[in-house]
Design brief:
alpha/beta, globular
């Protein structure tokens, strides 16, 4: 599948309507809070240059469903991918040891790619990964921030080759890759994983910045996490 180097201009302009997803979330919060929940640790991984609190709505939602939803504990996602993969793998191992069970990883944009790769490094500590608008191929090459990386002197072809090299080792945990054709930041084609045997690609209708507050995304996240989570008990 050919991947355009960046999403079309109309999709980028559509990112201006991302706030509407927040309004939809507010009106549907009660229904969402009644979805099937579970127990277990979920580490939330923010997108490129995003702080941990950008995942707060998802953290609160998952907390209401009974999960021990936590920030990834690394701070802002500064984009140093090799270091962040190693740090997240260590965090997943720590949390899995603390909880006595593998953790789930939920990552937005670049955070999702880092989550995938941490699971590739340490599958025994991770039970499943959910990615939201994450470039699973090409690194930043097929995103709106590609020009920024080039200005910083980065070789995008080399980064893409490194992504391909890492992908030669199959993932050993289920992956749920959510993508949207309305994404104005990451080319949706780059978010589709057509190689991993354990990958499920799920199309949603939201903007890139809407992934974190889309009620449609929340329903999918709740369903996938509940598939292997112990049922939540009424408190």
């Amino acid at each position: 599948m050919a991947i355009p180097e960046r999403p079309p201009l109309w999709a980028l302009l559509g990112e201006g309507f991302s706030g509407l997803e927040g309004l939809r979330l507010a009106t549907q919060w009660r229904q969402l809070a009644a979805l099937t929940g579970g127990t277990g640790t979920v580490l939330l991984c923010p997108g490129w240059q995003a702080p941990e609190f950008s995942m707060l709505p998802l953290q609160r939602f998952l907390g209401q469903l009974g999960y021990d939803a936590r920030p990834w504990g690394i701070g802002r996602n500064g984009g140093n991918v090799p270091d962040l993969i190693a740090l997240l793998a260590d965090r997943a191992a720590e949390e899995a040891a603390r909880a006595g069970a593998p953790v789930a990883l939920l990552g937005w944009s670049l955070g999702g790619y880092i989550a995938r790769e941490a699971a590739r490094e340490l599958p025994e500590a991770v039970r499943r990964v959910i990615t939201l608008g994450s470039p699973v191929v090409g690194g930043p090459k097929y995103t709106r921030v590609a020009s920024f990386y080039r200005l910083q002197g980065e070789d995008l072809d080399s980064i893409e080759a490194e992504v391909e090299r890492r992908a030669a080792k199959p993932l050993a945990v289920p992956i749920h890759a959510l993508y949207s054709r309305l994404d104005g930041i990451v080319s949706w084609e780059a978010c589709v994983d057509d190689r991993e045997a354990l990958a499920e690609n799920i199309e949603v209708r939201t903007t890139h910045f809407g992934f974190g507050v889309s009620p449609d995304v929340y329903r999918i996240v709740a369903d996938r996490l509940a598939r292997d989570a112990a049922p939540a008990t009424a408190g």
